[in-house]
Write a structure and sequence with these properties.
Order of helices and strands: EEEEHEHEH
Number of helices: 3
Radius of gyration: 18 Å
């Protein structure tokens, strides 16, 4: 990188990496880095999804939890070293800027958890919040998806 290279302020990733699950690689809005101005910053898009399930079974012997739960996929914090980046291509997005800019919001997560806990098949077991991405992202202040878990009847 030369000393004249411009960076996107406030973002960990500076590019969109290709998605290994797609045969075609394209960018609807390619960035011409020579033309990038200091502002405006790339906007974050929050994509509401209807999750089918909320608990993911953890089968790793080095983690003391049996289940993990992630109300968000992608993370606006954008830590460049984040291990969760490689999960975003499964959703059709890049592990680069799209990991930080396209946040999937599982708005029905609290209801799914409550249904699971009320199930006669459920056996009490530790659940890890946000084993993949942060459940207290900046948008959580407005959406309160994670905060709703505290109000589930079965968690009181």
């Amino acid at each position: 990188m030369s000393k004249h290279t411009k960076f996107i302020k406030g973002r960990g990733a500076q590019i969109n990496t290709s998605n290994p699950f797609h045969k075609l690689v394209y960018d609807e809005n390619p960035i011409d880095w020579e033309q990038v101005a200091e502002e405006p910053l790339p906007q974050t898009e929050y994509i509401k999804v209807d999750a089918k399930t909320i608990l993911n079974e953890v089968k790793s012997p080095d983690i003391g939890m049996c289940w993990s739960m992630n109300p968000y996929q992608g993370c606006e914090h954008g830590c460049v070293y984040c291990y969760a980046r490689n999960t975003h291509p499964y959703w059709g997005y890049s592990a680069g800027l799209e990991f930080e800019q396209k946040i999937l919001v599982k708005h029905n997560a609290p209801q799914l958890l409550e249904q699971k806990l009320k199930s006669k098949k459920w056996k009490a077991s530790p659940i890890m919040f946000s084993g993949n991405t942060d459940c207290y992202q900046p948008i959580e202040k407005e959406l309160k998806v994670t905060r709703q878990f505290y109000f589930c009847d079965h968690l009181r």
